[in-house]
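Entry 12.
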Amino acid sequence: MTTTDRVRDIVAPLVADADLDLYDLDLAGGVLQVLVDKPGGADIGVISTLARTISRALDEHDPIDGTYALEVSSPGLERPLREPAHFAKAVGTTVKVKTKPGVEGDRRIEGVITASNDTAVTVQPADGSERTLRYEDIERARTTFEWGGAPKKNQERTKS
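Predicted 3D structure (tokens):
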């Protein structure tokens, strides 16, 4: 069993007890990132209480060798996509994808996810073409958020 699996076994029931969904769990570079969500969004008070609960449980079970920093948060508007379930939930959403070196075609793709299954995702860029990528060929992917309205022009402040 990997360290990440041991951590997931400890963290998942705590997240469920807080009435949240475990969106993702990642241990890299001395940082344990726990992303939680629920329909309508996760409340910061609930997340901070959960962070203390997770910290105590990890201290008690000590599944991680060495030191690490714990981050508990929501996935945010521009959420990472790492698992097939993440891609499936994002069908119809605009994403940015970077493929691994050596994968045929452009390494960076931005477009709308039009289909997703257990092995691959299909992205349609603005030019109308479609590109199907196997998950193992994706280095990283995330949803993108388009802020509405045009940016305001800089206005000089007047001194009173």
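Annotation: The chain has three helices and eight strands. Strands lie at 21-28, 31-37, 69-73, 94-99, 108-116, 120-125, 131-134, 138-143.
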